[in-house]
Amino acid sequence: MSSYKIDIPPTALSTLKSRLENAVFPDELEDSEWAYGAPLADIKRLVARWRDGFDWRHEEQKLNAELPQFTRDIEVDGFGTLNIHYVHKKSERGLGIPLLFVHGWPGSFLESRKIVPLLTAGSGDARLPVFDVVALSLPGFGFSEGPKKTGFSFTQYAEVSHKLMLALGYTEYVTQGGDWGASITKEIARRYGGEHSKAWHINLILAGPPETQDPSSYTAIEKDGLARLQEYKRSGNGYYRIQATKPQTLGYSLADSPVGLLAWIYEKLVNWTDAYLWTDDEVLTWVSIYWFSRAGPAASLRIYYEVERAGQGIGRTSDSHIPTTPLGFSHFPKELGRIPKAWYHLVGNVVFEVEHDSGGHFAAHEKPELLVGDLQKMFGKSGPAFGVVLGRNGYDG
Amino acid sequence: MSNSFKIAVSSTALSALKSRIESATFPDELDDAGWAYGVPLADMKRLVARWRDGFDWRQEEQKLNNELPQFTRDIEVDGFGSLNVHYVYKKSDRGTGIPLLFVHGWPGSFLESRKIIPLLTKGSGDSQCPVFDVVAISLPGFGFSEAPKKKGFSLSQYVEVSHKLMIALGYTEYVTQGGDLGSRVTAGIARRYGGMHSKAWHTNVLFSMPPENDDPSSYTASEKEGLARWQEFQRSGSGYFQLHSTKPQTLGYSLADSPVGLLAWIYEKLVSWSDNYPWTDDEVLTWVSIYWFSRAGPAASIRFYYEVAHSGQALGTKSSPPTIPMGCSLFPKELIRIPKSWYPGVGDVVFEAEHDKGGHFAAHEQPELLVGDLRKMFGKGGPVYGVVTGRDGYN
């Protein structure tokens, strides 16, 4: 294990600046706004800021100051050793519940930024549990090494995540995940549930449909959730289809054009959130992590291909083994979609569920207090998952 | 009024491209990925190196200008104003050529007419062989044609501009050939202007929905295989289609800013959609350069998919087939092949030829075969001989 500080080499910074200075923009149809994709005015403004004004060193310093980071080598069966980057912050008091936070795409360890202080500090209220937080960069993302061989799918992402927790001395732990993190933490619950993964919480719940359905029994919210999912499949999953089939072809663009990468990610940051007020620097920090990532932006796309090839993708019908580990859900209205309660048995053993009236896909970033509040309820005294981790219940002794 | 046109990419554009290529950043690649994840890194590096040093655009440009007489003219499109349209126009070397409009698709261009034009206009030296006057349009947003500025420029508009071009050239009656999106455009021309203007149409890709009383058990082995190829295409080869149809602008930023990205995006199709065609690097680079140097930029061309998807004309939408005679040439590596029982949904097939080699880019891969089919279809003894009044392809 090594302490880690993000320290992008000056050559990388000047190369980026040079690429931005030579950026070539497409035109745009009149009045197209967001219909055809990210609007030209937004991208031009963001590129101008990225080129002059955005201070990566300053953002880097803030990140290093806020998030204690490390790297360590983790052996993954069939893939050798991967050097994994992660954030690790222990609770400020008491015995923090070990919580592994798993991001997705186009997310990163950065999504843990706002929830780490809330989870570890416990808001000063002694009735609330505190957590030890581990936020890893999945292999191929952030500052983790990417796998070199084909076939690195949920099994492997789960394995590396689990081994990280064990390496940190957490034989028992809980997890939180959204986007791919939801699927990966489900895989963790399936493989390591009971003995190691003691409970899991997700904010993206997708599975099914079951063999028999009774759509007339669905509530208005459930119908709306399914409709949103249908719409996503109709008009919002082009990125998924290309990433799941030809990630390398797309990868040449994203590796060579920071403007292209910015547009690719920014479109999701806006479309998938609930009127979240992104600042330009917030967006640029997020995208810079992809641009400066250890494995490069093309590597992060491959998870889609590997998952689809393993038959575990978004279109899969049912899982062979539903984990029995206690599961908590937080529903945010602008998530990509949601499934009816009647399908929950395809996901897991739901012991906790909260409905919110604001927030979207990037819950930890958009609504950190709400998400953390949910975790505090789920794992706190009188919560359904209180004390699941032996000897580390989030309180003093 | 038409203006003679010669491709003359500016030297600033050439040096800007060279400079971008020189600073290209490549991704890594998984071990033994082959073509499964997309274009292999070795191919890309080799092509980019050639594009940077060695590939001579000026020479290619000159060859194109020598081979293909090109023009531009303004064409008014209802609701979209005037668009300056680029096209190739070559009359037959002898006799009265049958006016033939050739319509490309994506990632094609007017360049796809390059090999068939000499064959169509010269004939084969055999007086039994008909000759053609060929018009190969650059669809708006492609090649050196202007692109529409407003939303909603869909099949109807591509149909309109193509038809108006033929009329402007003095061809009140004409025939068409099209593949890929060009097949949809020519089908639209046949539907709207068929009978009075478009007299017959030929395509190398057929698509329609199954008829109501469809009987899958009656399909031949070839037909089953063709449908299986289509399903596989939809499963693993249509990501670009879904993306173009939903977020073309988002993708457009990459294609406009990265020649490497554009090269990969197009090259992948050139290889995976053709039938072991031995692309030379310069052939690929010429093809992609047309996109890079296109008048409207590479992002404009992909909007076609979005517009079609949003105008109620998406593939699979039921519409009545054109009634004018049609011909089809079937090449084994085309992306889709439908069973014969579905043909009535496409049109009135009076000519059909099946080949044992060739893929999606038929005019480029198998020009003699395609032209041979057109000669049979339109020549003396063929099913639509003399379909264009006074211009039967002979003296």
TrEMBL record, chain A:
Residues 2-111 form the Epoxide hydrolase N-terminal domain. The keyword Hydrolase applies. It comes from the Eukaryota. GO terms for molecular function: epoxide hydrolase activity. The keyword Hydrolase applies. The active site is at D179, Y304, H361. GO terms for biological process: epoxide metabolic process. Keywords: Aromatic hydrocarbons catabolism, Hydrolase. Belongs to the peptidase S33 family. This is Alpha beta-hydrolase.
